[in-house]
Amino acid sequence: MLKLRKNKKGFTLVELIVVIAIMAVYQCYGKIHYGY
Questions:
Q1: Which of 1, 2, 8, 34 is spaced 20 to 30 Å from 15 by Cα?
Q2: Neighbour tally for 11: CB within 10 Å
Q3: Beta carbons of 16 and 4 less than 8 angstroms apart
Q4: Are 13 and 6 in contact (CB under 8 A)?
């Protein structure tokens, strides 16, 4: 894993974008497969 420099909140911008993207994909996946 790459060592990224942390900002004050403990997340780098890249990590924050990745987390948001994963959450968005999970929500879309859930709607398609489970209907919510």
A1: 34
A2: 14
A3: no
A4: no
